[in-house]
């Protein structure tokens, strides 16, 4: 990615804010269940995974995906704790623990995913391979 530093910093800030919004939405909605099925947790994990994958694929930048993931994790941690008045938004339940563990795992998988896998499957060289061949 050959963009200027201010553009990249702006992208990271926007990614962080979007991650905070998704993390907040997932933290609040994860506890919704329809009978025995944890619909809120499933949708929160799917939505967060889709957002992280979209940011990583559209920006071709691990740092943008990491900024999004950090926003999600910060929102989850801030709103999972005890508030200044002693109130708790997210009580400690099995769904809350699953959500708290799922977010960092999703972030780690998306950020650590190798860049060349999709290119190799399509038969096109990965960006690093293309640079090596042109030299």
UniProtKB/TrEMBL annotation:
Keywords: Membrane, Transmembrane, Transmembrane helix. It comes from the Bacteria. The chain crosses the membrane at residues 12-33, 39-58, 65-83, 95-113. This is Histidinol dehydrogenase. It comes from Microbacterium pygmaeum.
């Amino acid at each position: 990615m050959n963009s200027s530093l201010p553009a990249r910093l702006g992208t990271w800030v926007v990614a962080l804010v979007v991650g905070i919004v998704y993390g907040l939405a997932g933290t609040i909605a994860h506890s919704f269940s329809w009978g025995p099925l944890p619909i809120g947790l499933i949708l929160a994990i799917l939505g967060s995974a889709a957002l992280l994958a979209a940011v990583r694929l559209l920006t071709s930048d691990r740092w943008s995906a990491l900024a999004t993931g950090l926003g999600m994790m910060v929102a989850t941690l801030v709103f999972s704790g005890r508030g200044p008045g002693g109130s708790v938004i997210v009580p400690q339940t099995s769904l809350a623990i699953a959500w708290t563990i799922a977010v960092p795992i999703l972030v780690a998988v998306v950020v650590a995913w190798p860049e060349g896998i999709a290119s190799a499957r399509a038969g096109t060289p990965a960006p690093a391979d293309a640079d090596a061949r042109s030299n």
